């Protein structure tokens, strides 16, 4: 497959799985000490990646949580962020300025900071109490390995709170991800190539998602199509689609619908039914299309963000190839002063 090495992919995801035991020890220590709330904090892609974790906690736990953009957290200085808070964040390079500033501010108020990074020898790690690294990680496998660790963190906090009876099955499913997601990538490769070839010159896409795949919708639209491919998009939550965006529907409007398997799926079904009546350009990326061998059916829906990320990576890679536009090129980001 273009732009893909299964050995490296397996190594990165396996390392994320191997970090789970250390994650459990950290969370157990935090819970034993006591805490008041969780802050899920990120910038750009890592902000999007925290979305499925926020949804997991929202739908399965009574733990107070807040989901924040790093730069806004620093400027707003939320009153609930105190010495009794736990901040969870990530940065592959560990050099994202906004995320570093958020971690620094969290330490200033006495909060406990957990950071996922590529290498521990990075600026972000200086402001973290617990650091989990994955040295082989890169942009083409980052999302899945972050999800594995974020989910392991959230699941452990919920378990220690006397909640989430699905814990063991869920963690077992996460441990299956290196093999499961490799199969997802293989199964979606031809379809992803066909989509990329069809849309290599399409100027605008409407990306619609909801629930635990909303973060992937937002991330793919902003981080891949806009940042990495310079293609204009709008990411819109399915629950909000009929309150404004619906009027943008036309015969040649490209719609990409991101369907998971949680409670919000009917929201996407509603949008799909509508846009298929008024647009000739509708693509559905559905996690139900994959077998996910070894994953207990009761937790399939919980791992949908991982499945969505794996299939969309194939789209990213093929866009890079057919458009002759490297995923690494930036005009402004980390290139000019702003």
TrEMBL record:
Which GO-annotated molecular functions does the record name? carbohydrate derivative binding; glutamine-fructose-6-phosphate transaminase (isomerizing) activity; hydrolase activity
Q: Which UniProt keywords apply?
A: Hydrolase
| Stored InterPro entries | FrlB_SIS (IPR035488), Fructosamine_deglycase_FrlB (IPR024713), SIS_dom (IPR001347), SIS_dom_sf (IPR046348)
Class of enzymatic activity (EC top level): hydrolase
Instruction: Please give the Gene3D superfamilies that the UniProt record associates with this protein.
Output: Glucose-6-phosphate isomerase like protein, domain 1
**Residues passing through the membrane, by range:** none
Which PROSITE patterns is this protein grouped with? SIS (PS51464)
Q: Which residues form the SIS domain?
A: 26-163
Q: Does the keyword Lipid biosynthesis apply?
A: no
Keyword Hydrolase present in the record's keywords: the answer is: yes
GO annotation (BP), single: UDP-N-acetylglucosamine metabolic process
- What EC number(s) are associated with this protein in UniProt? 3.5.-.-
User: Would you tell me the protein name for this molecule?
Assistant: Fructosamine deglycase FrlB
Q: Which organism is it from?
A: [Ruminococcus] torques
